[in-house]
Amino acid sequence: MELEPHSRVAIIGGGPAGSMTAYFLMDLARRIDLEIEVDLFEPRDFSLTGPPGCNMCGGVISESLVQKLAISGIHLPNDVLMDTIDAYTLHTDQSHVRIRAASEEMRIACIFRGGGPKGAETQKPLPWQAFDHYLLELARQHGINRIPKRVKKLDWDGDRPRVSWGEGEMRTYDLLVGAVGLNGSGMSMFEELNFGYRPPKYAKSYIAELYFGSREVEQRLGKSMHIFLLNIPRLKFLALTPKGPYATLVVLGDEIDKAMLEQIFRAPEMVGCLPPGWQIPVQTCQCQPRIHIGPPRHPFADRIVMVGDCSSSRLFKDGIGAAYKLAKACAYTAVVHGISKKAFQRYFAPACRELDYDNLLGRVMFFMDDHMRPFSSIQETLIECIRQEQNDPASPGKLSNAMWDTFSGSASYRTILANTASPRVIHHFLTTFFRRLLA
Amino acid sequence: MLFNRRKTSLGKTFQSGEIIVKQYDPPGSMFIILEGRVEIWVDDGGKEPFLVAVLEKDNVFGGISLYDNSPRISTARALGVVRVLSVNKRGFLQWLGEDPTFALRILLKMSERIRTLIAQLVSLRREVRELRQKVARIR
Predict the structure, then answer these.
(1) A379 with A92: CB under 8 angstroms?
(2) Could you list the residue range(s) of the whole structural domain that residue A327 is in?
């Protein structure tokens, strides 16, 4: 079961997973002189501001993904970049430390997934371009056919998948790719195809675009993403990312509510990152997207494969990097090895398994963080160790690197754990801990 | 402007004439040209180094010392303002193992360069042959 000349591929969903799958399919097929037709179904216009054009995400492209995209021939244009980052600032309840990038260059991109926050449309034309819009256009330039319609139904035409849309239009395909994300109703259409697919487990997050103005963003946040390890009940992760005139707030935790947000904005370390006298706006662009926390079941079958968030992804970070990984694996398998369940099992499933297995280690790390957070002495020791590494140019900065990889999403949880658990880091941590205790 | 965007770009910018990597330096990262042009010079011990290639956007340089872990074999210099993105040696070697299409892309870039080098070699041989014929005629 292989893609043949003039085979038809349908991709449902035009977020990064869908667009990148389309792009890599066309790119690889062209390299082996295989002419295929790719239809990508995406009803949304990602150049629109606010919820209609947004794919709801923290919007940070990791260091490793920027490099992988560049090697793959995808160079993010300047107007897609809302900002670039060369540092992470780690805040605890009482202090903070800045971790600088190892290289003297900008390799982390802050982007908007849609046309921008609600309210930005008052200025036309906007001086930026949505990341998702850029990728979709790139795929279109590579010869895919974008159908700006909502898919109404998926079913089988014999052994081939069939897509119905618009006013009774339908088409049978040789391969169907699901890139429907976690937030729409797309996953249930794939469940109804009865190939065993069950969506991944998910939790809710909270994202808000806070308008500070460019000068205040520069002054308060600089070229750094701010991560807060605050001892607030039910809070797992909190980050503030500079994006031109905006700062994107990302909150992960259990039952995020108004009381938790008020507590966050009252925390002294957070107040230091906000403009003086700043109040929570009554109407801000905010959303509560689902985030991936557990693997799906049977994300592929003969002639069907799921990519992006509705398949396997990374726990709490680098969702776009995970989408890239599966898009590449999907395109490579389909073009080079075929579109049967067996081919996907052999060449696509390892990429899913790697993400799923790594997330288990990520879970252990988050569990440890959850239980250590109430002990401020542990957190302050961590800050002190990183500060010492950052102030010592001769230090290999193993802990700083591990923290950098954790926040930037540049490395797997396995690599991060291996770096953190090195004898040198443990020795440094314990000596600093006891020195602080005795002092 | 209310919703202005901070002017920013990825990678590192070099001004015209600045050296990006130097021949004989220890091996390190590979570079991708995001913007501008880069000259590749080789010093063969003669009076002056000679120009081997002028690379444009999307081209890769610095890869050879990354693959064979030997010192840099040429000097890369910015021709006008240039923006490049460095690619970590460790990361790249790891990604090569994970993603076969990376190797394909690098092979394509290398074959383009080999084609250009062979064309240069052919033209040099032709020049040498013509010079030899001229010398023979003079004799």
Answers:
(1) yes
(2) 8-46+130-200+295-360
